[in-house]
Design the sequence.
C-alpha cells in the first residue's frame, strides 16, 4: 500500500536533489545530511548524502514492502509537510514506480476498494474469492452476476467467469482510465471484434481507428455500457473525458481486460505479441527480459507503422520507449488448447495479494524486483535482472491466496475453463457505497424490531410500500421483493442505525438489515444461487447460504440520483410497464404517413449488435412503410431535472432505399403536455444486414413540470426502429420553482406587453385586434395581430410579451419548456386524416433572453405544433415571447389562435441548501489568504451575487480568509463545486479563453454536463491535509504568480497545467463553522421573506447593486459589446441608431464596452434628454463627473385636477366694418329657388297628414313603455314564491 509520508525538512534554502532508482545509485557517493529512506523494519531502500541544511529536493521512491516508511536525516529543522505517494508505472530505475501525487488521500487504507464489473461473463457462471481470515469461495447467482453487475469489497478479491467456453474475468475498476489502445487481429463480418466500454462516471468517449483515421464520439452516462465493434483488423485508440473500463474480445480468443496506456508494460509473449504506441510518432521500442537479454525494435519492426510485432516468446520482459511515450500491449496464442489472450500490464496495476477463484496451472508471476511470494505453505522467489523478475508455479488450487512482499502480475491456465486467466486484483481508488463483508447471516443481540420498522418506515418511496417481515429460520427483520442490491442499500440508508445489509437473489429476493455483526451464523461453503433445501442440504443451511453480507461505506449517497426510474427498461419482462400508442399522421409536424402498425417485443435480437436479445420493435411492416409508438408514465418530482438515455438501432436496409433512418422521443410532463422532443438518427442495422452496433442516444435533459411524466417513442415511414435500455435518472441539479404561463397571465401584474395584447391581461381585447385569455388545462390562447409592431415592414406583425423573471425569484429562470401551435380553435385535437397542407401557417414563435437575442431558432408554427425545451441564461432579466403574424395573406387563418402550454423553471425552489457542508479553500502558501470569487470592482474581477465580470485572466483571486463571505464558500456536490451565492452558480473553467497554459475561473450556471465544471477534489480529508482541485483534463486550481512572487491578496487564481504548478496548486480545505448562518441567509435571499427565530420577520431584498446601477462600479459593468442597454432591457447600437437610441426606451441603463463610463450631466450637446456614455473618467469630468447610483426613472404620474376658471379677459378690439352688397331683383330668380312663396292647398294637406301619423306612433310607443314599467314594479313588490 502507498502511504502518505510525513517528514521534516531543514530550514536552509540551498537546493539539493534526492534521487531514486538508477540516479540514486549513481549519486550514492555524494556526501551530505540526508542519510536513508527506510522501511519500519529497517530495510534500506535508497541512500544519498547531501549537504546539511539543504531544503529543496525531488523525491521519487518505491515502496518495497507493506511497512510504513520514514525519511531519515541529520541536522533537520522542524518544517513539516506531507507527501502523498501514488501507484505509478515502473521501478526504481528510470521509470520509477513511485510518484509524488496529491491524487491519493492521506489515509490510503481508508480509501482503497476492490471493485469489479461484469463485462462478459454469462450470468450464473462466475466464481468469487475474498481474502479474509477464512477464505470463502462463492458461486454468484444469475440474479447478481448479469452483464453490468458491480460488486465492491474492502479486501483483495478476484472474480472469474466464463462465456462460451472462454475465460471472462470481471473487469477491475483499478484499470479504469482515459486513454486506451488495442489491436483487432481476427475480425470479420461473420465475427466482428468488440470493445465493451463501461463508464465509471459520465463521460465523452472518442474512438479512432488508426488506418482509416475514422473517429466516433459517444456520450455515456454513469455505469452505462457501450459496445464498439469492427469487422476490420486495425489498431483502435480511445480517449475519454472521464474514467472508463475497456474489455476486448474476438471470436477466436478469450476476453481481455485492457489497461490504460503507461510508460512501460510487462508480460510474457505468446506467438502473437504486439506493443502499441499511443503517439504514432514513436519509432523505437526497448525490450528488457528477466534473463538479462535486451533488444531494440525500430520502425522496420512495425506493422503498417501502427504497432511493433514482438519476436521474443516465453520470457518475462519489459517494454518501453526511450522518450517515455505511453504504450500498451497484448499477447495471444494460436495453440488450439489455449487460444489465450491477455494484456501486457504496467506495474501500476500489480498486486501483493492474489486470491484464486479458479484453479490455475503453469502460473506465471512477474514483478519489478526480487520478490518472495507464499501460497499454501510454498515459497516462490522471483529471479531476474534489472527491473524484470519472474517465477513459475506448477499449480495453484482454487480458494487459495498468494501473498507477495512486492507487487506482481499473475496469470495461468485454467483446465476447468480451458483458457488462460489473468488475475488483476489491485485496489481501486474509486469509492464504493457498500462493500461485501462475506456470506451468511449476521447474529446480534442488538436487533431491529419489526413492528418499530413498520411504524417508522412504511414507505421507501411514494409508490413503494415496505412490507416488513421476519425472514429466515432465525426471524431476521427485512423485506421481500427488493428489486436490486441498490434498493436494499437505499433501505439501509434510510433506516437509522442500520450499517449492514443482507441480500438474497433467491429467497423471496430478501433484504435484511442489521446494526452490527457480532458473529456470522454460516461458516460453510456458500452458494448464493442455491434454489432451496436439496436432499443433502437442510432448510436452515440453505437460508444462510443464499445471503451476501454488505456493509455501508457512504451513508450520504444520493441513491435517487442513481436509480433508473423506468420500469422494465430492457424489456426482459415483455411489455410490462409499457403501452402502445400510434401517433397521428402529422404528429408534432412530422410527416409520418402510412397506416398504424404498432409492434412489440423482439426477443431474438442478434448478439452481434452488442446487446442482449430483447428490445422493443416499434412497428410492423416497417420497411414497407408504417407508423407506431409506445410509452411509459413514470413518477417524477416537479422542479427537478432528469436525464434520459436509451439505445437505438434500425434494420432491413437491404429492403429499402434509405441509408439512414430517424425516430423521435418525446417527454410530456404531465402526460399530454410536451416539454421535450428529440430527433435521433442511426444507420446501424439489426437485421438484413446485421451491420453496426446499438447506439446510445442522449443524455437528454428536461425539468419535470409535474409529479408524473411520459416517455414516448415513435417513428414513421420506412424506419424499422428498435429501442433498448431506457434509463431515466434524477440529476443532482437543484430544484426549480415551476411557473405555469397560465398562472403568469392570471396574475398579470408583472407581465409587461409591447406592441400588442393588452397591458391588463384580464382584458381580452385590444385596439389592434390581439387578445389573450386562459382556457382549461392551463392553456393560454393568444390571438396575434398583423397590425402589431412598428410600421416598418421588418417589425410589422410582431406581437411581444415580456416577463420580468426578477419578479419570480431572485436567481432568475434557467429554462422554458412547453408546446405551441396555431389552431382553428383552442384545445385542438389531432385528426387522423390530416393533410400535409395543414402544416402551413402564417405565424412564427420565438423566445428572447436577454431581450433582442433569440434563444434558439424561431419556430414556424403550424396546426400540429412545436415543442420548446430552451436553456436560458440564469441572470434575473426579462424573457420575451414573440409571436409574429405574417402579412403575406397566403394562409386563411380567420379565427385561428396561438395555443400555448409553457412552463418557466426558476431558481429558489425547495430546501436543497439545508444539507450543504460548506468549505473554504485556504492557499497553502499563505495561511491568511483564501480563494475567493468576490467582486473587486477596483481591478475589474470577481462576481456579485448573480453576475460575474468574466475577467480574461480570472474572476477568482486570493483574498483575506473570511468564512462568512459567500464568495469563499463552496459545497462539493459530486463533481460540481457549488458556490454559496444565492444564484445557482458553480465554480467553472472558462475554456473559451485563448490562453493555452492557464484558463480563467468564474461562476456559471451549474451544469454537470459542462466539462468546465467537473471537478475532482483530491485530498483535503482534514484541515491539515492538502487538497488539489483538478479538472478531467488535468488542469488544477493554482496561483501561478505565487511561483515567482510572494502570495498576496488580489493575486489571480486560475486553472493551469498541473506539471507547471507543483508548488502553487496546494490548498487547505477548511470546513466553515458558520454553515447554518450562511445557509439561512441564502435561503432567506431565495425565499425573500421568512420568519426568523424569535418571531421577528427578516426581509431581504432580491435586487442587487449591479441590477440597479451597473455604471457605478469601478470599472463599470458594461454590455461586453458595442451595444448599449436601455431601461426597457432592449439593446441598441449608438453608432447606427444614434446616441439617443435609448431616449424613447426609458433611457440608458448600461454603457458599451468601448465607452463604459456614464456621465452625470444629461447633455453633451447631442442628446439633452438622456445620460451619455464616455470612454474615460476624464471625459466625464467635463460633464459633471460620473453618474451617481440611483434607481430607474419612475413612471409618469397621473394627470392633475382641472384648475378654477380664470377671470374674464378684456374686450377685444373692434373688428373691421363689413361690406355692403346690393340685393338681386326678385325676377332674376325662377321657380322656388329664390325667396319663399305661399304654400299651395295640396302642400298644406300633405303636411297635416304626416304630422298626424307621427303623433300616433309616438303615442303607441309611450303607452307600451308605461305599461311595462308598471308591470315591473308590481313584480318587484310581490315576488313569486
Sequence:
Amino acid at each position: 500500500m502507498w502511504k502518505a509520508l510525513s517528514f521534516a525538512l531543514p530550514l536552509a534554502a540551498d537546493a539539493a536533489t534526492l534521487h531514486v532508482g538508477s540516479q540514486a545509485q549513481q549519486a550514492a557517493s555524494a556526501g551530505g545530511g540526508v542519510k536513508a529512506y527506510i522501511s519500519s523494519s529497517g530495510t534500506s531502500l535508497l541512500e544519498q548524502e547531501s549537504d546539511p541544511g539543504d531544503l529543496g529536493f525531488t523525491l521519487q521512491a518505491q515502496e518495497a514492502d507493506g511497512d510504513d516508511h520514514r525519511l531519515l536525516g541529520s541536522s533537520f529543522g522542524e518544517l513539516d509537510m506531507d507527501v502523498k505517494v501514488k501507484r505509478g508505472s515502473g521501478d526504481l530505475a528510470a521509470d520509477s514506480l513511485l510518484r509524488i501525487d496529491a491524487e491519493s488521500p492521506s489515509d490510503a487504507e481508508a480509501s482503497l476498494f476492490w471493485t469489479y464489473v461484469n463485462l462478459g461473463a454469462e450470468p450464473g457462471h462466475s466464481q468469487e474469492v475474498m481474502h479474509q481470515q477464512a477464505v470463502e469461495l462463492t458461486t454468484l447467482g444469475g440474479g447478481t452476476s448479469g452483464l453490468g453487475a458491480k460488486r465492491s469489497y474492502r479486501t483483495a478479491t478476484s472474480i472469474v467467469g466464463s462465456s462460451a467456453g472462454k475465460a471472462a474475468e470481471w473487469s477491475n475498476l483499478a484499470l479504469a482510465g482515459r486513454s486506451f489502445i488495442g489491436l483487432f487481429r481476427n475480425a470479420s463480418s461473420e465475427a466482428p471484434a468488440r470493445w465493451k466500454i463501461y463508464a465509471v462516471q459520465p463521460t465523452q468517449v472518442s474512438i479512432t481507428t488508426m488506418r482509416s483515421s475514422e473517429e466516433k464520439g459517444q456520450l455515456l452516462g454513469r455505469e452505462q455500457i457501450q459496445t464498439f465493434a469492427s469487422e476490420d483488423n486495425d489498431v483502435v485508440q480511445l480517449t475519454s473525458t472521464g474514467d472508463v473500463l475497456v474489455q476486448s474480445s474476438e471470436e477466436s480468443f478469450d476476453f481481455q481486460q485492457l489497461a490504460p496506456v503507461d510508460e512501460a508494460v510487462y508480460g510474457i509473449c505468446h506467438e502473437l505479441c504486439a506493443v502499441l504506441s499511443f503517439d504514432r510518432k514513436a519509432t523505437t521500442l526497448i525490450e528488457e527480459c528477466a534473463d538479462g537479454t535486451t533488444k531494440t525494435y525500430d520502425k522496420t519492426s512495425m506493422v503498417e507503422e501502427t504497432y511493433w510485432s514482438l519476436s521474443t516468446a516465453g520470457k518475462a520482459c519489459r517494454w518501453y520507449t526511450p522518450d517515455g511515450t505511453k504504450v500498451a500491449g497484448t499477447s495471444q496464442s494460436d495453440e488450439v488448447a489455449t487460444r489465450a489472450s491477455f494484456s501486457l500490464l504496467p506495474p501500476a496495476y500489480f498486486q501483493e495479494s492474489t486470491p484464486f477463484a479458479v484453479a490455475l496451472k503453469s502460473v506465471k508471476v512477474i514483478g519489478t524486483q526480487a520478490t518472495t511470494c507464499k501460497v499454501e505453505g510454498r515459497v516462490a522467489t522471483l529471479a531476474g535482472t534489472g527491473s524484470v523478475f519472474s517465477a513459475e508455479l506448477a499449480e495453484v488450487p482454487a480458494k487459495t491466496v498468494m501473498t507477495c512482499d512486492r507487487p506482481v502480475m499473475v496469470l495461468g491456465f485454467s483446465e476447468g475453463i480451458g483458457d488462460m486467466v489473468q488475475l488483476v486484483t489491485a485496489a481501486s481508488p474509486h469509492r464504493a457505497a457498500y462493500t461485501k463483508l462475506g456470506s451468511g447471516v449476521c447474529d446480534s443481540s442488538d436487533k431491529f424490531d419489526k413492528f418499530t420498522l413498520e411504524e417508522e418506515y412504511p414507505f421507501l418511496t411514494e409508490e413503494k410500500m415496505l412490507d416488513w417481515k421476519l425472514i429466515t429460520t432465525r426471524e431476521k427483520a427485512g423485506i421481500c421483493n427488493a428489486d436490486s442490491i441498490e434498493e436494499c442499500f437505499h433501505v439501509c440508508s434510510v433506516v437509522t442505525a442500520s450499517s449492514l445489509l443482507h441480500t438474497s437473489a433467491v429467497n423471496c429476493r430478501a433484504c435484511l438489515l442489521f446494526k452490527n455483526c457480532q458473529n456470522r451464523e454460516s461458516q460453510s461453503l456458500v452458494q448464493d444461487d442455491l434454489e432451496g433445501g436439496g436432499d443433502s442440504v437442510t432448510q436452515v443451511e440453505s437460508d444462510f447460504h443464499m445471503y451476501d453480507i454488505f456493509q455501508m461505506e457512504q451513508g450520504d449517497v444520493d441513491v435517487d440520483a442513481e436509480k433508473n426510474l423506468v420500469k422494465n427498461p430492457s424489456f426482459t419482462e415483455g411489455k410490462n410497464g409499457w403501452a402502445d400508442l400510434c401517433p397521428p399522421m402529422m404528429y408534432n409536424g412530422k410527416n409520418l404517413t402510412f397506416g398504424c402498425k404498432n409492434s412489440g417485443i423482439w426477443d431474438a435480437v442478434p448478439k452481434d449488435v452488442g446487446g442482449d436479445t430483447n428490445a422493443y420493435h416499434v412497428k410492423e411492416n416497417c420497411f414497407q412503410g408504417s407508423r407506431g409508438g409506445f410509452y411509459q408514465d413514470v413518477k417524477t418530482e416537479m422542479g427537478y431535472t432528469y436525464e434520459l438515455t436509451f439505445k437505438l438501432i434500425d434494420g432491413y436496409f437491404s429492403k429499402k432505399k434509405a441509408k439512414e433512418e430517424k425516430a423521435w422521443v418525446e417527454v410530456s410532463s404531465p402526460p399530454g403536455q410536451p416539454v421535450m422532443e428529440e430527433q435521433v438518427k442511426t444507420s446501424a442495422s439489426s437485421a438484413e444486414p446485421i451491420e453496426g452496433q446499438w447506439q446510445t442516444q442522449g443524455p437528454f435533459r428536461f425539468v419535470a413540470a409535474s409529479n408524473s411524466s411520459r416517455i414516448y417513442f415513435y417513428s414513421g415511414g420506412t424506419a424499422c426502429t428498435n429501442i433498448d435500455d431506457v434509463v431515466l435518472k434524477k440529476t443532482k441539479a437543484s430544484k426549480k420553482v415551476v411557473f405555469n404561463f397560465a398562472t403568469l397571465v392570471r396574475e398579470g401584474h408583472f407581465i409587461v406587453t409591447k406592441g400588442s395584447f393588452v397591458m391588463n391581461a384580464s382584458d381580452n381585447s385590444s385596439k389592434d385586434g390581439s387578445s389573450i385569455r386562459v382556457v382549461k388545462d392551463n392553456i393560454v390562447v393568444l390571438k396575434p395581430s398583423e397590425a402589431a409592431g412598428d410600421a416598418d415592414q421588418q417589425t410589422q406583425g410582431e406581437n411581444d410579451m415580456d416577463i420580468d423573471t426578477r419578479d419570480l425569484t431572485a436567481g432568475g429562470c434557467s429554462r422554458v419548456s412547453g408546446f405551441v401551435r396555431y389552431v382553428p380553435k383552442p384545445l385542438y385535437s389531432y385528426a387522423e386524416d390530416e393533410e400535409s397542407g395543414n402544416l402551413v401557417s402564417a405565424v412564427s414563435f420565438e423566445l428572447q433572453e436577454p431581450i433582442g437575442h433569440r434563444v434558439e431558432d424561431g419556430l414556424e408554427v403550424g396546426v400540429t405544433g412545436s415543442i420548446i425545451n430552451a436553456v436560458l441564461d440564469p441572470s434575473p432579466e426579462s424573457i420575451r415571447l414573440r409571436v409574429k403574424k405574417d402579412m403575406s395573406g397566403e394562409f386563411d387563418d380567420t379565427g385561428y389562435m396561438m395555443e400555448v402550454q409553457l412552463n418557466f423553471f426558476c431558481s429558489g425552489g425547495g430546501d436543497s441548501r439545508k444539507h450543504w457542508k460548506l468549505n473554504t479553500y485556504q492557499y497553502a502558501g499563505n495561511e491568511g489568504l483564501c480563494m475567493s470569487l468576490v467582486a473587486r470592482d477596483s481591478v475589474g474581477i470577481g462576481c456579485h451575487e448573480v453576475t460575474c465580470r468574466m475577467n480574461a485572466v480570472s474572476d477568482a483571486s486570493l483574498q483575506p480568509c473570511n468564512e462568512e463571505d459567500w464568495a469563499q464558500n463552496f459545497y462539493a456536490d459530486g463533481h460540481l463545486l457549488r458556490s454559496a451565492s444565492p444564484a445557482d452558480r458553480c465554480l467553472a473553467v472558462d475554456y473559451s479563453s485563448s490562453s493555452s497554459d492557464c484558463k480563467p475561473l468564474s461562476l456559471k450556471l451549474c451544469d454537470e454536463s459542462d466539462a468546465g465544471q467537473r471537478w475532482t477534489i483530491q485530498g483535503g480529508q482534514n484541515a491539515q491535509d492538502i487538497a488539489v482541485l483538478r479538472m478531467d483534463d488535468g488542469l488544477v486550481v493554482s496561483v501561478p504568480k505565487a511561483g515567482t512572487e510572494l502570495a498576496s491578496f488580489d493575486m489571480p487564481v486560475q486553472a493551469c497545467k498541473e506539471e507547471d504548478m507543483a508548488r502553487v496548486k496546494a490548498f487547505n480545505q477548511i470546513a466553515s463553522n458558520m454553515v447554518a448562518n450562511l445557509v439561512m441567509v441564502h435561503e432567506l435571499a431565495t425565499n425573500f421573506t421568512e420568519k426568523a427565530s424569535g418571531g421577528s420577520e427578516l426581509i431581504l431584498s432580491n435586487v442587487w447593486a449591479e441590477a440597479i446601477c451597473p455604471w457605478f462600479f469601478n470599472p463599470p459593468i458594461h454590455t461586453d459589446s458595442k451595444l448599449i442597454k436601455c431601461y426597457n432591457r432592449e439593446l441598441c447600437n449608438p453608432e447606427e441608431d444614434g446616441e439617443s437610441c435609448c431616449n424613447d426606451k426609458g433611457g440608458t441603463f448600461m454603457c458599451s464596452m468601448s465607452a463604459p463610463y456614464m456621465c452625470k450631466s444629461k447633455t453633451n450637446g447631442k442628446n439633452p434628454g438622456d445620460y451619455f456614455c464616455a470612454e474615460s473618467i476624464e471625459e466625464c469630468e467635463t460633464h459633471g463627473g460620473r453618474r451617481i447610483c440611483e434607481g430607474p426613472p419612475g413612471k409618469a404620474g397621473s394627470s392633475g385636477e382641472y384648475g378654477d376658471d380664470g377671470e374674464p379677459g378684456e374686450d377685444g378690439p373692434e373688428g373691421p366694418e363689413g361690406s355692403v352688397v346690393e340685393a338681386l331683383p326678385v325676377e332674376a330668380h325662377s321657380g322656388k329657388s329664390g325667396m319663399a312663396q305661399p304654400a299651395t292647398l295640396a302642400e298644406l294637406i300633405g303636411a297635416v297628414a304626416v304630422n298626424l301619423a307621427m303623433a300616433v306612433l309616438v303615442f303607441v310607443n309611450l303607452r307600451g313603455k308605461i305599461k311595462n314599467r308598471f308591470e315591473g314594479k308590481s313584480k318587484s313588490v310581490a315576488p313569486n314564491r
Notes: The longest helix spans residues 1241-1277.
